[in-house]
TrEMBL record:
<feature type="binding site">
    <location>
        <position position="86"/>
    </location>
    <ligand>
        <name>Ca(2+) 1</name>
    </ligand>
</feature>
<dbReference type="GO" id="GO:0020037">
    <property type="term" value="F:heme binding"/>
</dbReference>
<feature type="binding site">
    <location>
        <position position="102"/>
    </location>
    <ligand>
        <name>Ca(2+) 1</name>
    </ligand>
</feature>
<keyword id="KW-0106">Calcium</keyword>
<feature type="binding site">
    <location>
        <position position="263"/>
    </location>
    <ligand>
        <name>Ca(2+) 2</name>
    </ligand>
</feature>
<comment type="similarity">
    <text>Belongs to the peroxidase family. Classical plant (class III) peroxidase subfamily.</text>
</comment>
<comment type="function">
    <text>Removal of H(2)O(2), oxidation of toxic reductants, biosynthesis and degradation of lignin, suberization, auxin catabolism, response to environmental stresses such as wounding, pathogen attack and oxidative stress. These functions might be dependent on each isozyme/isoform in each plant tissue.</text>
</comment>
<keyword id="KW-0479">Metal-binding</keyword>
<feature type="disulfide bond">
    <location>
        <begin position="136"/>
        <end position="331"/>
    </location>
</feature>
<keyword id="KW-0349">Heme</keyword>
<keyword id="KW-0732">Signal</keyword>
<feature type="binding site" description="axial binding residue">
    <location>
        <position position="209"/>
    </location>
    <ligand>
        <name>heme b</name>
    </ligand>
</feature>
<keyword id="KW-0408">Iron</keyword>
<feature type="signal peptide">
    <location>
        <begin position="1"/>
        <end position="30"/>
    </location>
</feature>
<comment type="similarity">
    <text>Belongs to the peroxidase family. Ascorbate peroxidase subfamily.</text>
</comment>
<dbReference type="InterPro" id="IPR033905">
    <property type="entry name" value="Secretory_peroxidase"/>
</dbReference>
<dbReference type="InterPro" id="IPR019794">
    <property type="entry name" value="Peroxidases_AS"/>
</dbReference>
Length: 355
């Protein structure tokens, strides 16, 4: 009820002249034709698994009909996979005698358990239909794409052909590559610049926070002991009701206006000082990213275009292709842990390489 009142109280938004858009951030042609990493292809599974995308989307429609919240969980899983050591499914791996998995690193402790189950269920469905020719990393990328579309966002193609990694990153490497929610714009811009993302990419990818939830301890540093002056007071008071203590175990929506719909309201929130994380709100506070935030707030089509471009770019970070890595027969376990599975996968993969 409190959040509903908040939405009503803040419905009078800042009026922005459309001239702002054309003066600063002109609409350019779609970026989906950006360079593709060697080894990936728009038609990679056309012969080996032509029903792949249909299988994935059909099942996800059922999943999201029961719980639309899983869309945000799958999207976040793809981000956390790609940012650490590339889009090669290492975040899906369980730990081993060699050390804890990426899932044990603090930024990944709140990844949804169900998201991992959904990925491996899809892997089983796809492999039953086509054989073990589709990687878990490709399935993860497809679920992120469909999570966006099936929650109201743009539909788009992604290049496929990723192979699954054979190792997982250390906890320190995971921490170093996933900027925390209390990071400011300077930290985020610097971190993502190492992956060749510019300011527009950073703001566009941050728009993924238009769906999903957060635990209190990710943002209560902005409430206690003193309130962050960049946060709207009414918004802050409502958050204090949800999180009465800094370590409250509760959760709240990332986007107060349309929490389960993928749209541009996240940027409207920022303009009204209702961004949940420091890493969100500082994109509007910082001069380097403020005008980009404004442009996305007034033009959802522009946001969608730039988001798609940045997502395709992100989905190709340090991918493994060709004979690198493997096609896992179980997304949480390397094939080397099961020699029979390893031989079956290699035999099938070799047969398709002849085409």
């Amino acid at each position: 009820m409190a959040l509903l009142s908040l939405v009503c109280l803040t419905s009078l938004l800042l009026v922005i002249s459309p001239l702002l858009l054309s003066s600063y951030f002109p609409i350019s042609e779609a970026q989906s034709s950006a360079p593709i990493v060697k080894g990936l292809s728009w038609t990679f599974y056309d012969s080996s698994c032509p029903d792949l995308e249909t299988i994935v989307r059909k099942q996800l429609k059922k999943v999201f009909k029961e719980d639309i919240g899983q869309a945000a969980g799958l999207l976040r899983l793809h981000f956390h996979d790609c940012f650490v050591q590339g889009c090669e499914g290492s975040v899906l791996l369980d730990g081993s005698a060699s050390g804890p998995s990426e899932q044990d690193a603090p930024p990944n402790l709140t990844l949804r358990e169900q998201a991992f189950k959904i990925i491996d269920d899809l892997r089983a469905r796809v492999h039953k239909k086509c054989g073990p020719v589709v990687s878990c990393s490709d399935i993860t990328a497809l679920t992120a794409r469909d999570a966006v579309f099936l929650s109201g966002g743009p539909d788009y193609d992604i290049p496929l052909g990723r192979r699954d990694g054979l190792s997982f990153a250390t906890i320190n490497a995971t921490l170093a590559n996933l900027p925390p929610p209390f990071a400011n714009a300077t930290t985020i811009l610097a971190s993502l610049a190492t992956k060749k993302f510019d300011a527009t990419d950073v703001v566009a990818l941050s728009g993924a926070h238009t769906i999903g939830i957060s635990h209190c301890n990710s943002f209560t540093g902005r409430l206690y002991p003193t309130q962050d002056p960049t946060m709207d007071k009414t918004f802050a008071n409502n958050l204090k009701g949800i999180c009465p203590l800094a370590n409250s175990p509760n959760t709240t929506d990332l986007d107060i206006r349309s929490p389960n719909k993928f749209d541009n309201k996240y940027y409207v929130n920022l303009m009204n000082r209702q961004g949940l994380f420091t890493s969100d709100q500082d994109l509007y506070t910082d001069k380097r990213t403020r005008e980009i935030v404004k442009s996305f707030a007034v033009n959802e089509t522009l946001f969608f275009e730039k988001f798609v471009s940045s997502m395709i770019k992100m989905s190709q970070l340090s991918v493994l292709t060709g004979t690198q890595g493997e096609i896992r027969a179980n997304c949480s376990v390397r094939n080397s842990d099961n020699l029979y599975l390893k031989s079956v996968v290699e035999e099938v993969a070799a047969s398709w390489s002849e085409f």
